[in-house]
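name: query_chain
kind: protein
chains: 1
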Amino acid sequence: MICAIYKSSRKLDTYLFVEKRDVFDAVPEPLMKMFGTPKLVMMVPLSKRTELAMADIEKVKSELTEKGFYLQLPPPVTNLLDEHRKSLGITD
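structure:
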């Protein structure tokens, strides 16, 4: 299985995986509007990989098969000051 990976022109660190290059038929229109103009990042042969950098490869394969696309969102932002305060036992 080969998939095309696109980055969002509107949302930082947001990627869309689709089964075929430049085919977005399975992607809901509201999602495409939010995503903006897709910019091709790479073509990836998923059958030859065991892992991906920021996504669970089995989930990607499953969603591509079931929905026709996979949306990768950026990880949540960690507030380092709050983490440091917790480690020191400081509460507000």
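note: The radius of gyration is 17 Å.
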